[in-house]
Amino acid sequence: VQLQASGGGLVQAGGSLRLSCAASGRAFWRYAMGWFRQAPGKEREFVARIDLNGGSTAYGDSVKGRFSISRDNAKKTVYLQMNSLKPDDTGVYYCASDRNNDRVYDYWGQGTQVTVSS
After folding, report:
1. From residue 96, how far is each of 5, 44, 74 by CA, in Å?
2. Residue 101 pLDDT more than 90?
3. Which residues are CB-contacts of 98 (< 8 A; sequence separation ≥ 6)?
4. Residue 74 pLDDT
5. Which runs of consecutive H residues, i.e. helices, occur in 1-118?
6. What are the CA-CA distances from residue 18 to residues 24, 33, 100 (Å)?
7. How far is CA 31 from the centre of its chain?
8. CA-CA to 42 of 20 to 30 Å: which in 71, 88, 94, 116?
9. Rounded distance, CA 41 to CA 13, Å?
């Protein structure tokens, strides 16, 4: 599985961005997917998760109510819609696959930088 994250950039506080994660491989529809982020000097943080068909999602406490994860299995793509962005949302965002649906993420994309200015 190869994952390619995109859509990052520089945005002012209060703004929005949508990240995309394009996956290779024929069995994408079998994988749960997640988004994580890492800010400089901080540990990697869980952001969001979506199950195989998009029926179940989960979010980190710091993004609940502002971020939304979705997927399009036909396009083999997972999205992260980020609204009401804050400077604390700054970091490199990574998508990852959970092929066994056991919350162990085994393949990771290269990351896309999100910078939120105050």
Report:
1. 10, 12, 18
2. no
3. 31, 32, 33, 34, 49, 104, 105, 106
4. 93
5. none
6. 20, 16, 26
7. 14
8. 71
9. 21
